[in-house]
Amino acid sequence: MNIGIVGGGRGGVAVLTLLLTIPEVNVLWVSDLQDDAPAFSKARAAGIKTVKNFLPHLQDPNLDLVIEVTGVAAVQESLNKHKRHGLSIMDAKTARLLITIVEIREEINRKIVSNAKELTSLTEEINQSTLFIRKNMQNITNDAENLAAFGDSLAQTSQTAKEEAEKTQEILSLIEEINKTTKIIGLNASIEAARVGKAGQGFSVVAEEIRLLVENTAASTRKVADITENVKGYMDTIHQGIDEAKAIAHSQAQATEAVLGALNTLADVSDRLQQLAHDLISL
């Protein structure tokens, strides 16, 4: 449909703005007495002819409709008087409906742009927060993995310490056997000293010292054995604690990975929202 617009003021700008968005409409010209009319600037920018006298153009056979937006009765009378047969004229009252539609649409567009800008700002904040959280969660994941690895090392050390404690028990058993043999030797020495009487008194003193040494060694061996057994118990407790810490570290690492996955999804959603906001602004 080919259309001409009479009136280059605010109403003419509104109608021209609306018609330029309709692919099926072709605006042939815009008319106004003032060369600096607002609608003229918009028309020229769109490559549309601007004229001061619309009367000659009313006979154009390609013209389908003229929209009069001045609201001046004399202009309306002139249009009706000089139009060719079959040319439709939309008066200012009817054109006012188009102007109202344009004004409402522009207000809606302003709100859309405002909301889109706010949405863009919010999504940028979300992106920044997501990046911050993701960075810290990655650090937590790394720390948890390092903790689990350190737990493995501690567990190995604890197991080695337990094995060394068990070797100590073996040494203590050997000492106990030697102590028993020494005790028997001491008893034999005492018997021999008693048998020879006065001549064996020196030998008797040695036998007594051996007996005391055996008793002290036995007592010390029992204490060391108790301590070693306690150490083994402590190592078992430490080993159990390390296993629990490793399990917690692994669980934490898995949970952190899940959070990172959720953050990645959130980042994708935020990027999509930001793109939608940019699309709305560019409408």
- Residues in helices, as a percent range: over 70%
Given helix and strand content, the structural type is alpha/beta
Order of helices and strands: EHEHEEHEHH
Number of DSSP E strands: 5
CATH topology of the largest domain: Helix Hairpins
Count up the domains: 2
- Low-confidence segments, given as residue ranges, are none
Query: What is the class of the largest domain in the CATH system?
Result: Mainly Alpha
Which strand order does the major sheet show?
3-2-1-4-5
CATH superfamily of the largest domain: Methyl-accepting chemotaxis protein
The end-to-end distance, rounded to whole angstroms, is: 24 Å
Question: What's this, in brief?
Answer:
The chain has 283 residues and is α/β, with parallel strands linked by helices. It contains five helices and five strands, in the order E-H-E-H-E-E-H-E-H-H.
Fold blueprint:
Layout: E1 2-6, H1 10-19, E2 26-31, H2 38-45, E3 49-51, E4 65-68, H3 73-82, E5 88-90, H4 92-196, H5 201-281
Parallel strand pairs: 1-2, 1-4, 2-3, 4-5
